[in-house]
Amino acid sequence: MLIMSVTLFVLATFLGYELISRVPPLLHTPLMSGANAISGITLVGAVLVSGTGLTDLSAILGLFAVIFATINLVGGFMVTSRMLKMFKKGTKTS
Q: What does the DSSP 8-state code read for residue 88?
């Protein structure tokens, strides 16, 4: 089971890198919005996993998942907001 999980993680990492690296710059804002939606789903899943607390390890890993998904979600919205401001006339990005 562990080998299958590690294999799945490595394949997902490789596929994610290949997909993201081939996205043209004009599509980064819509892609970031989609990634924010996925991060929201990940956050809900992390809360569910940490809330069950079947073992101490699952509670700790769930807590880390909640923290990292929250950071990813908030950072994604900040980046998306900043990128959308770049398309408005007369607005500085800083």
A: S
Contacts of 78 (CB under 8 A, 6+ apart): none
The full set of domain ranges for the chain reads 26-86
HSE, side-chain direction, 13 A CA sphere, residue 68: 9
Distance (Å, whole) CA 70 – CA 65: 8
Instruction: Report pTM.
Output: 0.59
- CB of 80 closer than 8 Å to CB of 32: yes
- Phi and psi at residue 24, in whole multiples of 5°? -65, 150
Residues 21-76: tens digit of each pLDDT: 887 777 766 777 777 777 788 888 888 877 877 888 888 888 888 898 888 888 88
